[in-house]
Amino acid sequence: MSVVRQQAYKMFPRVGWYATADSVAAGYVADVSEFQDTMLDLEDSARLWIIRAATAAADRERRGTTIDPTLGRWSHGGPSYSDTTTLTYEQSGIRLTVWNNIIELAQRRAILKTDRALVKASPTATSYDLDMETSGVGAWDGTSHSSSTSSCTPTKSTTDSFSGTLSLLLTATGANGYVRGPAVRVNPAEQIYFPIIARADVGTLTYRLWDATNSAYINTANDIVYTGEEYAFFDRGPETLPAGCEFVQPHFLLTGATDIAVVDTMFGPYQNGARVFDLPSIVDEPSKLKLIRPCTFREPLGTANTYAAYSYEWDGDKEIGFDYSLSHYARDVLSNRIHMNKALPMRPIWLSIETFDWDAEPLNSETATTSLNLAPDGPLMPFVMHELMKVLHSLKPDDTEAAEQLAYWERMTAVVTVSRPKQIERVATYSRNLSRI
Question: Of 54, 133, 165, 375, whose CB count within 10 A is highest?
Fold first, then answer.
């Protein structure tokens, strides 16, 4: 919470500031640089709140009483401090409980937008993890879904991803090491489309498909071999599955003994004509899914069937109510399923998802921190400033500056709903020629 308040002080200094004291005693905070020979309005400033966020709850908030400009001390009228070693403090015109409400309301309004690949969901409680967004590597290291490894160690990376927050990092421990992922159920002899986004950080990455039913590789002529260090789209398929093939596994081969590769996400596998898809767990409420977005990767690279990952463009957005409907159903893992009015094309498909900051990272305790972007124009601070100005304006309705700030942040946080234009009904009109008799 404190990092959010500190950013708010920077954006509107009238509400408070933060500093490091020279010392703290039972009844005061000493800070010569702030209070000695100060130009502060001593009477008004002294009555503000002393917030010491890094201390225990009992010492966290006191109402100030007097400022001694000679000694540089700010005294309080509450119980004596028990913690006199923590020196960071804030001077705030708003008490902590109000700040907490402001930040919580802002988080419940701040929307985080992301695009995630549409991948096949597991019918069990253990995720296939085809979008790599599950923490841990159980679906890749042999723990679940018949996955296996040989001379290669899979881990998750939080610092190297093209989409989402995680990626699958593959580190070879010997020549021709591989990771064979989850066995995904498919229909025999049908066409599937199973592309990925990946890169070869060191050496060579080969993307293959394994027929887990017949214990054989699928169409090895379609294997994609890549040595580029930039993220690429591997356009694998559509291709027809062998007779009897009921389970397919993605297979990542590292040629050299010290090779390293990163797999960001997979798409699908999509089967020809499919119209029903289960949504990933991030879409736990129907309102979070905004668009289904087929795309096309335009910039080919030197390797066959590879394209620059950054070269995709949207190709016909699908909207709820027009192109698909959502339904809830009882399931251990997922709560939503989409029904397409028409089959989706056999091409990579993204889900445009909106979640609230509160869902991702609730700051419901004073010691909580955030990895969220706190820039003035970031996803959270405009909402914090809007809620703050609403409080300040209610306390001082005649304060012109607060009213102007309220109007500004209200415009900054206005939500504009964009929807497909309604089709105009052409109503036939008929006229009759009437004549007098």
Answer: 133
The pLDDT tens digits of the residues spanning 327-353 come to: 655 444 445 678 888 888 888 999 888
Nearest to 284 by CA among 372, 199, 351, 233: 351
Q: With 70 as the cut, is the pLDDT of residue 374 above it?
A: yes
- CATH number for the domain that contains residue 200: 2.60.120.260
Say if residue 303 is in the same domain as residue 197: yes
Nearest-CA neighbor of 348 among 203, 235, 188?
Answer: 235
First to last CA, the chain: 86
Residue 366's contacts (CB-CB under 8 Å, 6 or more residues apart) are 1, 2, 53, 57, 60, 96, 100
The tokens describing 97, both together, are: 């409980």
Give 225-264 pLDDT, tens digit per residue. Answer: 999 999 999 999 888 999 999 999 999 999 999 999 999 9
Residues 171 and 301 in one domain: yes
The first and second tokens of residue 377, run together, are: 């124009």
- Which run of H or E residues covers position 318? strand 318-319
- Structural domain total, the chain: 2
Residue spans of beta strands (DSSP E) within 175-323: 177-180, 184-185, 191-193, 196-202, 205-211, 216-217, 224-226, 232-234, 239-240, 247-254, 260-266, 270-271, 276-278, 289-297, 306-308, 312-314, 318-319
